[in-house]
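Subject: design request, 309 residues
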């Protein structure tokens, strides 16, 4: 049987180079209370739980602990590996909240979820060191910092003190990029250096390209095409695109109607080596991610599984 180009299917190599460069996956294990998260064998799913009145797509729904517990349990049942709890909206134009207000929002919810279901892995979405500290004491296991340990000089020290994983997201005040991708790499390297100097173990660092932060529509699309540049830095990469404006703008749809757009970005991210996907809609995105994993985590597909740190 011949292809349109005249070559027989039997003559094709089993692992043909025409299918492109394959990504690097990092192997990590994180002890999180009663649970252990393992990277390197499948994509992990982070479910979003906003306990805010003004988040762009689900503000006000899960402020009460009972509602938050119910939603967290449902997300885990649907396939979430991590529940990411945030008490301050990061949407464009949001009003910053005080440390006291943020603590008032997140600590009761974290404590309630941890008491009701201690097996659930919790991350705290904050850039304030004291909020992170109190969240870890209340039952959180991971810090997710949208300012990459640059907003609060004590954040890296908290991560080092607790020996917990920390997610360093790319963000900046100055939108005047000189060399866009190189600047992002340089900015993330600064965050990495801050955390390493504070004593954070290399294996506890996770990177996030910061899609939707300090980037316009075209720049968001461009970083989506260049995620493999970040996976080459030596750290696992988390991708958070769920319901974001660049998807809504591209498809001209509201936030609650862009599951397919989010799924497309998740698939593209996994194909470039992203190992954690942060989403609102767990069940449909898990189906997409499971299909991607069947392809990307096939033993013949992984060309480099990095164990050393």
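Subject: RE: design request

Done. Sequence follows.
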């Amino acid at each position: 049987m011949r292809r349109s180009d005249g070559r027989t299917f039997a003559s094709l190599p089993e692992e043909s180079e025409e299918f492109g460069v394959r990504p690097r996956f990092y192997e990590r294990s994180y002890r999180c209370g009663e649970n252990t998260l393992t990277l390197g064998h499948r994509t992990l799913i982070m479910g979003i739980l906003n306990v805010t009145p003004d988040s762009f797509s689900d503000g006000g729904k899960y402020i009460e602990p009972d509602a938050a517990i119910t939603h967290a349990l449902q997300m885990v049942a649907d396939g979430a590996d991590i529940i990411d709890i945030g008490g301050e909206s990061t949407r464009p134009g949001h009003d910053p909240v005080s440390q006291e207000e943020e603590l008032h929002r997140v600590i009761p919810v974290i404590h309630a979820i941890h008491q009701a279901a201690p097996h659930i892995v919790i991350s705290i979405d904050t850039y304030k060191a004291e909020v992170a500290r109190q969240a870890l004491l209340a039952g959180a296991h991971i810090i997710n910092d949208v300012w990459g340990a640059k907003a609060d000089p004590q954040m890296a020290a908290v991560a080092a003190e607790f020996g917990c994983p920390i997610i360093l997201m790319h963000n900046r005040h100055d939108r005047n990029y000189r060399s866009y991708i190189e600047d992002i790499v340089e900015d993330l390297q600064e965050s990495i250096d801050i955390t390493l100097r504070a004593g954070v173990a290399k294996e506890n660092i996770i990177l996030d390209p910061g899609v939707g932060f300090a980037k316009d529509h075209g720049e968001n699309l461009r970083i989506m095409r260049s995620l493999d540049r970040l996976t080459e830095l030596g750290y696992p990469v988390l991708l958070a695109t769920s319901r974001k404006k660049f998807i809504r703008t591209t498809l001209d749809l509201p936030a609650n109607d862009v599951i397919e757009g989010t799924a497309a970005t998740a698939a593209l991210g996994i194909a470039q080596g992203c190992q954690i996907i942060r989403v609102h809609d767990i069940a449909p995105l898990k189906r997409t991610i499971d299909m991607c994993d069947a392809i990307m985590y096939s033993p013949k597909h992984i060309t480099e599984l990095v164990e050393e740190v």
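The domain at 29-89+97-306 is CATH 3.20.20.20 (TIM Barrel).
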